[in-house]
Specification:
This protein is α/β, with parallel strands linked by helices. The protein has 25 helices and 30 strands. The structure holds iron/sulfur cluster (SF4).
């Protein structure tokens, strides 16, 4: 059989390498894949966004790393070395860091794009092979506020507790801080169908995005004030007698405190805080009151704040007060961002967590997982530092002196990125596993070239909690290894008493055992079941219909207060800066910026014509944006669709996160990516 015949005959059903929708697609070809539609996969029914259609562009680039590299710190020069040499070098560096700082002298940083098998193995590697508590991941910066709020309110965090298609069945959909049409276009059809059946869409976003263009009501609050809006809406629902007293009595606790806490949030006060006209606040409450089905979905715009988890709780309170949570076509959900944002937060790469969404400080959880790993429970470390706090501690006398990074481009994606870069530079050993020389890999002492996406098999858990199987479709370049092989090679060199399988299906079976009985229990899921059922929703199709996951079966309502952004505009930094995504790029851009068929126009500074006029800036002029942490220069994009007191910068390129604020949410430890105070001036 010729190569051409092999390629045309081979069709592999798999999933997109990018966002949390995990659209199904077919790949043909063994070397350069061709993407085609997989109409039978229920989430996207064959539809893909331009990133998905262009995913094959991840292959064939000249920048692909195919040999381990070691950097000479004196000269800065890279040398290609053998795998044995590289892994020996890493193991020696780890031992040196442990000798100097104990087990916590070594840290691990993972990613929300890693497969479940990798995330699980990474958590096990940290706790067993390294014995360190110092592990966290970039998903902390994505969905952690919603996760924290969901666990507090419902006792369980599955981003969407129902299939995404349920959106079509609701009467009013409230999207808080989500640009769903641009960030996951195949999901936009649900909004269209909802509106065709007469349902209404409300979008709350400081920018008029393509999603807001499809809304029946678009509210543009001052960044960081979504919480106050929720308090004001609930105030009006109480006043109108629109809450559901029997649901509140039977299915929740804490309602009286919540009701009292919103008593003073009359619409005019909301207007003063949020900048939204009082009559629009009333219009929103009127849309929600008396409807059989109301659905509230939050995303990063509401969550990436130092008040993010309280903001989510405030919107959950609205959904609970209306008696919506657990009702079909209604309730609350979070639109997770990263490809495996859901699974990545379930299986042990978070600082406070063991597989199955278990808590690492729970003795029963420790005993169960230690049993699966074949170690004594006392050998497992306790909770470590959260993602930003971990990076902030690197290279300090109290912090780790060695760091292993998988699936994260920290230099671009961390808040206060200049400071974080200096912490990475202060390490004695930085090891990065990646497919290309990312901005973070460029700082490393050792770079390990690994397989990506269609070159390897593994499961992902999409935003609905649907466990899907990414199947290996193409042959990896020679010279690269899987992350699982890297961890196994290091564990062996470090004399780990636990084994580290390299076959993903074997790892998944072990993950199932480790998660058994936990909140996210995968023990009944197998690769074959995923293939047969085109994905398996863990916990069942719809959650909370009868009861919540707290011991008494009731949801918890918490009275939360508006605090506002950690940094308010002032004379020196007079505008709000917010950050976000553009359609053609994904996360830090390490993948998508290298796909030639995707436009890479670089960053821009979006601003309103009124602000541009005040600054004397015309379309395309260079402008400098500065905050207390750093500055960047980019062309102005002057649009009437953003608030005049706010500028927006996309975060896919180096720059935006030099500006962002590292103020953390007290519950989720989420940094305040979405708002800080900035100055904007014309010129470079
Ligand atoms: S919406 Fe997300 S998962 Fe679907 S094709 Fe686009 S990037 Fe991929």
């Amino acid at each position: 059989m010729t190569q051409t015949e092999t390629q045309t005959e081979t069709q592999t059903e798999t999933h997109c390498p990018y966002c949390s929708l995990q659209c199904g697609m077919r790949l043909a070809g063994r070397r350069t894949p061709e993407v085609s539609a997989w109409e039978e996969f229920p989430v996207n029914r064959g539809a893909l966004c331009r990133k998905g259609w262009a995913a094959a562009g991840l292959y064939g680039g000249r920048e692909r790393l195919t040999s381990p590299l070691v950097r000479d710190r004196e000269t800065g020069e890279w040398s290609a070395v053998s795998w044995d040499h590289a892994l020996d070098r890493v193991a020696a560096g780890i031992r040196a860091a442990q000798a100097a700082g104990g087990p916590d002298g070594v840290a691990v940083f993972g990613g929300g794009g890693l497969t479940n098998e990798k995330a699980y193995s990474l958590g096990k590697f940290a706790r067993v092979a390294l014995g360190t508590s110092q592990i966290d991941y970039n998903g902390r910066w994505c969905m952690s506020s919603a996760a924290s709020a969901g666990i507090r309110a419902f006792g369980l965090d599955r981003g969407l507790p129902f299939p995404l298609a349920d959106v079509e069945e609701t009467d009013v959909l409230v999207l808080v801080g989500s640009n769903l049409v641009e960030t996951m276009p195949p999901a936009a059809r649900h909004l269209d169908r909802l509106r065709e059946r007469g349902g209404k869409v409300v979008v709350i976003d400081p920018r008029r995005t393509p999603t807001a263009d499809r809304a029946d009501l678009h509210l543009q609050p001052v960044p960081g004030t979504d919480l106050a809006l929720a308090l004001g809406v609930l105030h009006l629902l109480v006043a109108a007698g629109a809450v559901d007293p029997s649901y509140l009595a039977e299915r929740t606790t804490g309602w009286e405190d919540v009701r009292d806490s919103v008593a003073s949030w009359w619409p005019e006060r909301v207007e003063r805080v949020t900048g939204i006209d009082a009559h629009e606040v009333r219009a929103l409450a009127a849309m929600l009151g008396g409807k059989p089905r109301v659905m509230v979905l939050t995303a990063r715009g509401a969550e990436q704040h130092s008040t993010g988890s309280d903001t989510v709780l405030a919107w959950i309170n609205v959904a609970l007060a209306l008696g919506m949570v657990g009702r079909r076509g209604a309730g609350y959900g979070c639109l997770t961002g990263q490809g495996n944002g859901q699974g990545g937060r379930e299986h042990g790469q978070k600082a406070d967590q063991l597989p199955g969404y278990r808590r690492i400080d729970d003795p029963a959880a420790r005993a169960h997982v230690a049993g699966v790993w074949g170690v004594h429970p006392d050998a497992l470390p306790g909770p470590g530092r959260s993602a930003y706090e971990l990076l902030d501690a690197l290279g300090t006398p109290e912090g780790p002196s060695a760091l292993l990074v998988l699936g994260s481009n920290i230099v671009v994606s961390a808040p206060r990125a200049t400071h974080v870069t200096s912490r990475l530079e202060a390490l004695d050993l930085l090891v990065v596993c990646d497919v290309v020389m990312s901005e973070t890999a460029a700082l490393a002492d050792v770079v390990l070239p690994v397989t990506q996406w269609a070159e390897e098999t593994g499961t992902m858990t999409n935003l609905e909690g649907r466990v899907v199987l990414r199947q290996r479709a193409i042959t990896p370049p020679s010279g690269v290894r899987t992350d699982l092989q890297v961890l196994a090679g290091l564990a062996e060199r470090l004399g780990s008493q636990a084994s580290f399988p390299t076959d993903p299906e074997e790892v998944f079976a072990e993950l199932g055992q480790a998660s058994a009985g936990g909140p996210a229990d995968y023990s009944a899921i197998t690769y074959q079941r995923i293939r047969d059922e085109k994905g398996v929703l863990w916990g069942g199709e719809r959650l909370f219909a009868e009861s919540f996951a707290h011991p008494d079966g009731r949801a918890r309502m918490y009275a939360v207060e508006h605090r506002g952004a950690a940094e308010q505009p002032c004379a020196d930094y007079p505008v709000h800066l917010t950050t976000g995504r553009v359609l053609a790029q994904y996360q830090s851009g390490a993948q998508t910026r290298r796909v030639r068929s995707l436009p890479d126009d670089g960053p821009f500074v979006e601003m309103h014509p009124l602000l541009a006029g005040r600054l004397g800036v015309a379309q395309g002029d260079a402008v400098r944006v500065a905050t207390r942490r750093g500055e960047m220069t980019a062309p102005a994009k002057v649009v009437p669709t953003i608030r005049p007191d706010t500028v927006f910068v996309p975060f896919h390129w180096v720059g935006a996160n030099r500006l962002t604020n590292d103020a953390l949410d007290p519950a989720s430890r989420m940094p305040e990516f979405k708002v800080c105070a900035a100055s904007v001036v014309a010129g470079a």
